[in-house]
Amino acid sequence: MSRERIAVGETYREQALINNERYLDMYQRSIDSPETFWAEQAQRLNWRKPFTQVKDVSFAKEDLHIRWFEDGELNACENCLDRHLPERADQIALIWEPDEEGAEVVRYTYAQLHEEVCKLANGLKAMGVKKGDVVTIYLPMVPLISISMLACARIGAIHSVVFGGFSPEAIAGRIDDGHSRIVITADEGKRGGKSVPLKHNVDNALEHCQHSEVEKILVLRHTQGNIDWHEQRDVDLAELLKEQSPDCPAETMNAEDPLFILYTSGSTGKPKGVLHTTGGYLTYVSLSHETVFDYKAGETYWCMADIGWITGHSYAVYGPLANAATLVMYEGVPNYPDCGRMARLIEKHQINIVYTAPTAIRALMADGDTAVEGTDLSCIRILATAGEPINPEAWRWFHDKFGNNTAPILDTWWQTETGGMMITPMPGATDLKPGSATRPFFGVQPALMDNDGNEIQGAGEGSLVIKDSWPSQMRTIYGDHQRFIDTYFSTFENCYFSSDGAKRDEDGYYWITGRMDDVLNVAGHRMGTAEIESALVAHKTVAEAAVVGIPHDIKGQGIYVYATLAADVEASEELRKELRNWVRQEIGPIATPEAIQWAPGLPKTRSGKIMRRVLRKIACEEYDQLGDTSTLADPHVVDDLIAEHKALA
Ligand code: WT7
What we know:
By secondary structure, this protein is of the alpha/beta class. Helices cover 31% and strands 23% of the residues. The chain is built from 20 helices and 31 strands. β25 and β26 form a beta hairpin. α6 packs across α7 and α11 packs across α12. This is Acetyl-coenzyme A synthetase. GO terms for molecular function: acetate-CoA ligase activity; AMP binding; ATP binding; metal ion binding.
């Protein structure tokens, strides 16, 4: 923990929506009387039928239930679009910057976005989509991705967005789990000058589905690339939309009706379908977008996260649109065609607020000052990051090069499960400490637990839990409520367990220390070791596999594989390559292993449990820190693994 403390700048304190006094007062009220606090905050939305109940929650595992505003009715899409029209129909809602620098920028006003959404909503209805149906969305970073989500919300369909970097196998699992009948995709995506064969991946996915119920694939002609076409099943989106009316009444939804499912990795089993509902989610992401980014009308805001992740859902779609913000969406990667693209993009669109990930900063930093050369970034007022801890070197570089040494860097801690930011600074209120996510957001009660399940008081380190519900909390794992209870509410009594560890310092600031389970964080992408291992053993040559995370300069963590080959299979460089490609193909390029080490045997306890701690230490060359290996069934495997690791290095 660094001792450095960066005081809130004068102008920020004076001009921000929330200063420290206000933060402390609102925070206290949000904890002392959550019902009054959230009933007030929910008034930022338009309710078709006002709620009379605010909160009905029990975290007890025998009686787990989480309900917010449960008798209220509203529509999320209407709150993001229609209600802004009387005053802001001609304001720019979305600025789309294509992958190819210099290619035509597309802008949508709120009125235009509303029209596109209504047409697609009608198109979906024409395809037979009804309230409660799950629609799978597999699209690149183009306006249609937001339009599709909002169109679903408008008619009460549940969207399930699958990140465009995932493989056919990964798509198939999600289509199956959600019983989706409709998929929205594009011919191809474009990222960093390369094409991504999205339609082809969906075609393949359908062959992998266990019980495909898919009836229609709506295809956006984006690059005009070559694709297979199945007359009965594939629908050209442009054709469909041509016939649709721009009027589509929004469905009345209950506050607790599902808004979306988003899959995320856990430590065991297949990815979990995190389910978020309507009223509480929208209230929370709207409030946090405004207060954390100190968003003021007229400002241009850019969330760099892909919409396929929760950061994109909450802070590139729902939060900012609920607040009538002007958003930038970028199709490509921040370092294409070179590392100056991000800075040029910010300057070109005069962006005031940038929300990014530490891994992107580290990637740019690797090229030194060239990332900002020749640009004037004085438009930047606020910088923020999410997804992983930001190391103090990256913090300082970003603050200096992009933030002109004045823009605060907000390190926001949260999760797919939490729906919105949980521990985060606010620009006018919070003194910053590089590397710390600082203090809880309104209504959030973090606590640290020791191994005996007792709460740690004052400064200390332990398991990070949240003691009471907040409105944007996930409600269940789609189709597996018991797994929801087991995963989050069974480790500590009456608490939500985040699976992260954290420290708290003398000032009450939180420092996230990382996952306590077998989940990796590779370039801000969350991945279960179990998922990668099961992909590996699905290859005919692999008998057993164990995956651990190793430190990586840019990605934060990299994937290190130990593979035990089946009898009679010979280890070779070609096989190493083949396995590497296999994992990319099974899960996606984000899961590409850094290294694959052959392991004649794996270190197991007598009960057969793999000792990952030992594997992690070997991969990091910390041979003298293996700890107690006396409980291993065969302690000699460790020597073999060390010898093999040395040979590989
Ligand atoms: C995991 C959640 C932030 C939403 C997008 C990622 C890690 C997230 C931070 C941070 C340190 C962080 C945690 C968490 N994480 N933000 N500011 N500092 N670690 O959501 O994919 O569900 O991943 O990301 O380990 O559990 P996600």
